[in-house]
Amino acid sequence: MSGQKFGVAGTVALVIGHFSGMLDLVALPVWVGALVERFQFSPQQAGMVVTLFLIGAVIASALAAPRFNSLNRRAFAAGGFAVAAIAFALAATRSDVTVLAILHAVAGLSIGTALSMVHGAMGHSNNPHRLFAIASIALGFLAIVLLAAIPQLLIIYGGPAVFIVFAGIMAVAALTSLLLFPALTRIVEHERKPFSRAIWFTIFGISIMTFNQSMVFSFVEVIGKARGFAPEHVLAVLIALGFVNFLLPSPLAAFLQNRISAPLVTQIGPAVQAVIAVVVISATAFEAWAPAAAVFVSIQIFTHTFTFGRLAALDPTGRAVAATPAMLMVGAALGPIAGGALWQNLGPTALSLTAVVVAAISILFFTKAKHA
Q: Which residue in 9, 22, 154, 219 has the most C-beta neighbors within 10 A?
């Protein structure tokens, strides 16, 4: 698809907006872990607080994406990240579950709006697949920094540290969006007609895959410690996960863009994710658990890069990719609380079986999208 070349400044704004808004994809373990260990929340309470953040993002994105071409994208991106920064800064001053839940919901609503502007703009670039891959490489780098730094900051400064870090990231995203967000000069005029079946099936497929991702990944730290692995070893795996995310899935997705079929990738991705999820949940030997946990997120990143490019091609208006936060976070919103409930009440076997069933459903939708 033909699109717009944004230049270095516009690309920087979109990349920073992407990795800031997609914070949950890499930070869930330390986020949930901080709520459980530092704030003394139960796994279900911690899952519920993060779920409210994700639900807020879903609602905001679902409302903003259809209006993407008529909104002031720079203002909504910068304003959304700014409000999220304030919400997280306030969260650092409170420890009660009700107030933290409300602030998480506000942050989610704000980030969902901003991120829809970012992803919609990325869909108008001359190569959405490559731009999304570059943004995901930056997200991998952020994962290295966050997963290495936040646990240490929590030890030194306590639970509020996690929210101060989040507030700082959102403040940077707000500033870069305000100053550098690209002007879209080639907005595609379109009829307000429904998405095709292929678009909807692709959206359902990636949403369900993301549910699996967050259901398991949000409890990686909890699972590792429950298996008796040393906390420093679990931390080392989380740091390794950041390096894997940085070095492997996005560069590989960019390299393979024209060498492998996007629909095929979307069919294989959930199956590989399910296999690794079972190992992460069930392995009792650290030698088996560690590599599986380290590569788990990279499967989602690789698959979603191809999904993003495919949606941008299927819908040149940018509305489908503008809904990326909704399609990802509607799955992610249910994942932490579902994972917490399954782990706490039914144990690891139920979590493993659920991961396999959910993967099968995701593959079904991606297969129907391929043939629609």
A: 219
